[in-house]
Structures are given as C-alpha cells and as structure tokens.
Amino acid sequence: MTTIDIIGAWTPRPQSLDDVTTATAKMLHDMPALPGLWVTTPGDSSGDDGDPQRFTALDLNAHADLAARILAATAEVKNMKNPGQYATIRRRTEQGKFPLSLRIRAGFAKPRNRIIASLRLDEVTSAASQRLIRAVMAAVIGAWNPDWLKAGTYEVQKQQGHSHGPVIIGWDTYISDRIDFDDTAIDGRLATVHGAAGRYVTLDGTPAEPSLEQAQLVRAALGY
Q1: Which residues contact 77 (CB under 8 A, 6 or more apart)?
Q2: Are 16 and 71 within 8 A, CB to CB?
Q3: How far is CA 74 from CA 57, 60, 107, 112, 124, in A?
Q4: Which of 7, 24, 55, 138 has the most CB atoms around its CB within 10 Å?
C-alpha cells in the first residue's frame, strides 16, 4: 500500500462558512468513484481505528448539514486566532478502510489556506492509478483554485530537500499562473501541460519514485 499525498495551498482568501461549504461539496461531488461513503467523525479524527458508530455518513446534497459539521470541526480547533474553517472528511469502506482522507483549512485571511488529501493505493505504476491521482487533483483544483497542488510521497518531499519553500514539488504538480515560473529553467526537458489558469508539470518516473533531478529543475524555475 502506497500513500500519495495531494497537498496544495493558496494565499490568504477570506471565505464565509457558506463559501467553504459550497467548495467542499463541489470537490466531493467531482471526486472520482471510490469504494465506500464520505464520512465525518467528531473529536480527534487523526486515527484510522475506532468505533464505526463514530463515523457519520455525509449527504452531499444536504448543504446545511455539511455546514454544521464544518462549523463543529472548526469549533474543536484550539487557539483559533483568525476567522476561517476546518474540516476532516474521509471516504470509508464497509471494511473500515480509508482510501481517501481530506483535511481542509480554508477561508483564512491569514495565514495560508491549505488542503491535504491522502490517497491510498495498492500500486501507483499503472495508468489507471495515475489517472485516479490526477482525477483527485482536478476535483481539488476545480473547487479551491489553489496557487499550487502536488501529488507525491512524503519520502520524495524529503529527498528533494524541501523545507519551507512555498511550493512542494511532486510527481505531478499544478502551478497556477499566479505563481512566477521561469520556463527557460526547464527548457523543454520535462512534460508541461498548460490549462486555463495554470500548468501541470509531470516528472519522469512514478508517483512514488519520480525524477529528483527534474524536481530540482522545477524548483529552479520557481526561483529556489
């Protein structure tokens, strides 16, 4: 089993509870088909174990209920100093597995807003698995319009020497046109696909073992 972390962020962007709820519902609606149901759980939701009765299924068409759950999750966060919303939502199977977990921090005027999606896959080398990764990325981008979004493993993040740079480079990385990018630094040496509001940069290799040399090229194009 491999966990692909799909992590993104965007600059301070105030959003109301209604805005965050609408974006969350859109993201979940647009996600690719996965086994199980979308669920939330009260209290500490960091672990994957626990009583099944703690998990409550979501109805994506029940806007007020989703808003209430986001509000409750936000209220549980200690030391809240800035307006904003938190949510943890998971896809839970009948066997109690979590093929996808989502942690959302949105609506903050400061500091940066963020989303972390953990996608668990039996393998990551097939075309089908890679399409699934990109479909999750597309759902996140369509809902939140992030400045950047990457798909890769934490191990690769450490290997490329990322510390506190604004953009994490993954096997596949979406970079909004709002972010400065020097195309001459890559000079056609890796795959880049331009979209309506940004570009996808894909490294050679697999999501778990991409080219670290190419990752450094992308970092150079970003200016660090």
Answers
A1: 86
A2: no
A3: 18, 19, 11, 16, 34
A4: 24
